[in-house]
Design goal:
about 10% strand; 7 strands; about 50% helix; about 525 residues; extended; alpha/beta; 5-stranded mixed β-sheet
Length: about 525
């Protein structure tokens, strides 16, 4: 009896151990399945990035796929064999517009070259009478005169009294921005625009100038940049004060390399931050880290709403009672777009609802609504859609694993949802942060060409100044070269308390006044 009882106890223990082992293997299998799923997802994402379409534009859900089109064609061909050979089709379509060559811009100067037959040929073959000019045919072609250097001479007249001969009168030279090398405002503006707007590094500009017979060392241009950035810095500080006085801003950041002062010849990662309004000026700031303390310090005194992505570094800014966060719908959409393969039908429905929200924004733009009227349209049309969108996201939440792309997209959307709803409450706010992201793209193009900024402090300050002025002028529809050349020419003669009149927005307002009143002067 005791033997039987001992065997039963032993078998019971072995059974429990086997159960635990089976449970362990089952858990291990589930973990491996999840890991395989994640790796497969990463592989699919990599293949999509390598060979798939890079654009995130909205797709028409009603658009027929290529495979469906092939099936439909096969079915149509089979039906054609049974259908009558002849049928009459009638329909109405819009007449296509005729597209010819665009006329050349009217503001360009015309150099007229007259082409007439020689006098010997202007005699009538029938009556030998001289022909008269009765009409002409004008053909235009676009021409270019390559950039040319010139030397601007200032000739100062010297005057003295022929009787006294005790002193001469010479009118002083006009103020110049930089004495060393004596570059003109036009030359300085040209070099700045070439680097910070057209992304031409100084060594390439040096080579271009050599081909025109002018040796202008990059070290010299770099010294000019340092002196010029210090002159223009107060204008950018005035732009910053204008931004901080507002109540709505967008922020974004991107990494950029700079030389490390401690490790000679090595670079370190810095960050360039963009602060601006969708239809206003942009101010850039270069920092040595991505810490949230940098925007916190930059925005000292700001009160209102700030629109950003979900980067946690901004939490230090939003911790202030006077600042509230507005999230970005484009980032929410992007994460679902990247996870579309995980649950195509459900994710496609979510993307369709997001598209409906953007259709409301497009309608507001087409109708040219004011911010207040756009807010009313959002509350009427967007509010029901965004409520449905939240329901679909919540319903999808239990399905994917948290570490998968779809799981991360859902967690991101839920975490940002409260801040996302604020765009339905703030009239000036946009649905996304794309305007600020677009201000980052020129920097991304530039860093591919010049690789690093130079010294993190000095090079960062120059980049902040020149990017702020050139990109703001471009965004406001100004000619960046005309704006910068005029500002460089006037900055040394403008009193410090009036430097705010040289910001791109103030310069545009002054330009508008001169167009209405031609006798006035810009600024």
């Amino acid at each position: 009896m005791d033997v039987t009882r001992g065997s039963l106890n032993r078998l019971s223990k072995e059974n429990e151990e086997l159960k635990r082992h089976v449970e362990s293997l089952s858990c291990e299998k589930n973990e491996q399945a999840q890991q395989i799923g994640l790796l497969q997802e990463q592989l699919n994402d990599l293949l999509r990035r390598l060979y798939g379409r890079k654009s995130e534009r909205f797709e028409d859900p009603n658009q027929t796929s290529l495979l469906d089109l092939l099936k439909w064609t096969e079915q149509a061909n089979s039906r054609e064999e049974e259908a009558p050979k002849n049928e009459r089709i009638s329909y109405t379509r819009k007449r296509p517009e005729r597209h010819g060559p665009r006329p050349l811009p009217e503001h360009l100067p015309r150099v007229v070259e007259r082409i007439d037959p020689p006098e010997a040929e202007r005699v009538c073959a029938c009556c030998s009478k001289e022909m008269e000019r009765v009409d002409e045919v004008v053909t235009e072609e676009l021409d270019i005169v390559p950039t040319q250097f010139r030397v601007k001479q200032y000739v100062q007249g010297k005057y003295r009294c022929s009787g006294c001969m005790n002193r001469d009168i010479v009118k002083p030279l006009p103020p110049r921005p930089i004495q060393s090398g004596r570059p003109s405002p036009n030359l300085l503006a040209y070099i700045v625009i070439s680097k910070y707007l057209d992304h031409l590094p100084l060594h390439r500009q040096e080579q271009i100038f050599k081909r025109q017979g002018v040796h202008l060392a990059r070290s010299t241009m770099d010294e000019w940049f340092g002196a010029l950035s210090r002159l223009l810095l107060p204008i950018v500080e005035a732009m910053k004060r204008n931004l901080v006085r507002g109540h709505y801003l967008q922020i974004d950041e991107t990494p950029i390399e700079a030389l490390d002062r401690e490790l000679r010849g090595k670079t370190k990662r810095c960050y360039l931050w963009s602060y601006g309004k969708p239809a206003g000026e942009i101010v850039y700031d270069v920092t040595t880290s991505r810490s949230g303390r940098h925007p916190h310090v930059f925005l000292t005194g700001f009160s209102g709403f700030i629109q950003t992505d979900g980067y946690v570094g901004y939490n230090e800014v939003f911790a202030q009672r006077s600042v509230e966060h507005i999230a970005c719908m484009a980032h929410i959409r992007r994460k679902f777009f990247e996870a579309k393969h995980a649950a195509p039908e459900r994710v496609e429905e979510i993307l369709g609802l997001i598209r409906a929200l953007y259709d409301v924004e497009e309608e507001a733009r087409e109708l040219k609504l004011s911010h207040e009227n756009r807010l009313e349209l959002r509350q009427t049309k967007s509010t029901p859609t965004i409520e449905t969108l939240k329901e679909r996201i919540d319903a999808l939440a239990p399905i994917p694993t948290p570490k998968s792309k779809l799981g991360k997209a859902i967690q991101y959307a839920i975490g940002q949802w409260g801040a996302m709803l604020r765009y339905l409450e703030v009239a000036e706010a946009e649905i996304d942060n794309n305007a600020c992201e677009r201000s980052i793209r020129p920097v991304v193009l530039g860093r591919k060409n010049f690789l690093f900024l130079g010294n993190a402090k000095a090079g960062g300050e120059r980049a902040s100044v020149f990017y702020s002025l050139t990109q703001s002028a471009k965004k406001l529809g100004l000619n960046p070269f005309e704006y910068l050349a005029d500002v460089i020419d006037r900055v040394t003669t403008t009193p410090k308390e009036h430097l705010g009149e040289l910001t791109p927005s103030a310069w545009r307002e002054a330009l508008g006044r001169t167009e209405k009143h031609p006798g006035a002067t810009v600024g």
